[in-house]
């Protein structure tokens, strides 16, 4: 992003910031899942509950996919 700032490419800055924010969100989501997985302690019943929860998540497509 430094180069985009240097050349004042505001469209690139906006796009790159979106990717950074998306990555932060995905890493947070992954940490939450990993924490829940650790809490199961390998218990099959809890793993099945977690699997069910994860299976019910709704994918939200990026805005670019919804505009096509």
TrEMBL record:
MF (Gene Ontology): ferric iron binding
Transmembrane domains' residue ranges: none
Signal peptide: none
Alphabetical list of PROSITE patterns matching this protein: FERRITIN_LIKE
Pfam family, one: Ferritin
Gene3D superfamilies (alphabetical): 1.20.1260.10
Domain Ferritin-like diiron: 1-41
Protein name: Ferritin
Organism from which the protein derives: Methanococcus maripaludis
């Amino acid at each position: 992003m430094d180069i985009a700032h240097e050349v004042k490419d505001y469209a690139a800055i906006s796009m790159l910031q979106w990717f950074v924010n998306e990555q932060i969100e995905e890493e947070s989501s992954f940490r939450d899942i990993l924490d829940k997985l650790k809490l199961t302690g390998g218990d099959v019943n809890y793993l099945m509950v977690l699997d069910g929860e994860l299976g019910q998540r709704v994918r939200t497509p990026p805005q670019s996919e919804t505009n096509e």
